[in-house]
Write a structure and sequence with these properties.
It contains 5 helices and 8 strands; from the N terminus they run E-H-H-E-E-H-E-E-H-E-E-H-E. With about 140 residues, the protein is α+β, with helices and mostly antiparallel strands. The strands form 4 sheets. A two-stranded antiparallel ribbon has the order 1-8.
Length: about 140
Amino acid sequence: MKRVYVNEDWCLACHLCEYYCAAANSGAQSMVKAFADGKKPIPRIKVEEGGNINFAVQCRHCDEPSCVKGCITGALSVKDGVISCDESRCVGCYTCVLSCPYGCIVISDESKVIQKCDLCIKNNNGEPACVKGCPNQAIVLEER
């Protein structure tokens, strides 16, 4: 299965992946509309800066995901190796947030349900927005 990987040697910590991710998952037709009128869509990827090393953190789509096992409502599921969330089933208990060893699950400010990377299956024709928007090609979608 293809997964998103980050080459930390190439990451500039420009945070563009966060903006592309937030815009792609906002439901808006463009990045301008996604951030219009002071809206703050939440990215499902986060750039960590650490001196000489910068890298983006996003869902690893684990082979044995503890977040899915910890979800009390069954809102998280695995299909074809991709872990996705049915936000209508999420009750905001955040057990999955506590279960994720990588800190990849974020909480929506508006709805208080969780959000996580789903590899942009629902948008961008399956090409993750963070990969498509990275100017230095530090984020890639590959099989390893």
